[in-house]
TrEMBL record:
Domain Immunoglobulin: 19-121, 126-234
Signal peptide segment: 1-17
PANTHER family: CD48 ANTIGEN-RELATED (PTHR21063:SF4), LFA-3 (PTHR21063)
Keyword Magnesium assigned: no
Protein name: Immunoglobulin domain-containing protein
Keywords recorded for this protein, A-Z: Signal
Residue spans crossing the bilayer: none
Length: 250
């Protein structure tokens, strides 16, 4: 078994030695990586959640044995990679928050146990933004200049139309999309470091749901992190004050 330990900070993820903290949005998926390239003979990988065994995989000279717990809480949402032992949790729920422990046993040497502390952010935690028509608004991601990401996708509306994209691997930095019906008309600006999206000269038709998907793969996990914003654009108004003068005539 080959095993890699790193220390790095990532959007939604904090890695520190043999412990990792992972934040993921409700309904998304997350893959917790074992760090194993390929399971060898007599290797065994076990995953536990809150102390209870939920999945395991082992290999002898003739076959690979794979077991995933079929209980009510996960409802067939667990998937175990039969080559690496990576654990994927699909359609993740807030009740999936907690401590996931990775145990690897190998006659060639067993690495220390790894603890993943997973926090599932409720879908109700959508940030509301109100802005006056004609102004600019910046939708801030949770990234900083020093954090690492592979792909950032901004989507708008119920149809989730792609309006901006950064893909480091493919060398894509795209803000040219005008969005549905051409409504944005080159009014989008994308920060190449943080992925934050700025809408200039905003109009009432820009009101709606904006979602940003941040994806990255490092050492022992693949993370898909989603943030949502509800933008309300208020039309300009004129405030008129009427002053009534009462004239008394004798």
């Amino acid at each position: 078994v080959s095993f890699l330990t790193v220390s790095v900070f990532l959007a939604g993820v904090c890695v520190d030695g043999n412990e990792e903290s992972v934040s993921v949005a409700e309904g998304d998926s997350v893959t917790l990586k074992s760090g194993v390239t390929e399971i060898q003979t007599d290797d065994e990988i076990e995953w536990r959640f809150s102390g209870s065994k939920i999945a395991s995989i082992s290999r002898d000279s003739s076959e690979i044995s794979l077991w995933v717990k079929a209980d009510v809480s996960f409802r067939d949402r667990l998937q175990l990679d039969n080559q690496t032992g990576d654990l994927k949790i699909r359609n993740i729920r807030t009740t999936d928050s907690g401590e996931y422990k990775l145990l690897i046993s190998s006659p060639r040497g067993s690495p220390p146990e790894i603890i993943f502390t997973v926090k599932v952010v409720s879908a109700d935690e959508v940030k509301s933004v109100s802005v006056l028509e004609g102004d600019s608004v910046t939708l801030q991601t949770s990234l900083t200049h020093k954090q690492i990401y592979d792909v950032i996708l901004w989507r708008f509306g119920q149809q989730k139309s792609l309006v901006a994209e950064i893909n480091r691997t493919a060398g894509i930095f795209n803000t040219s999309s005008d969005g549905p019906d051409g409504r944005f008309r080159n009014r989008l600006q994308l920060n190449c470091f943080t992925g934050s999206l700025t809408i200039t000269n905003i109009t009432t038709t820009d009101s709606g749901l904006y979602e940003v998907e941040i994806s990255s793969t490092i050492s022992r996990h693949t993370i898909h992190y989603t943030q949502s914003f509800t933008v309300t654009v208020r039309g300009e108004y004129i405030y008129i004050q009427f002053i009534l003068n009462t004239i008394y005539l004798d």
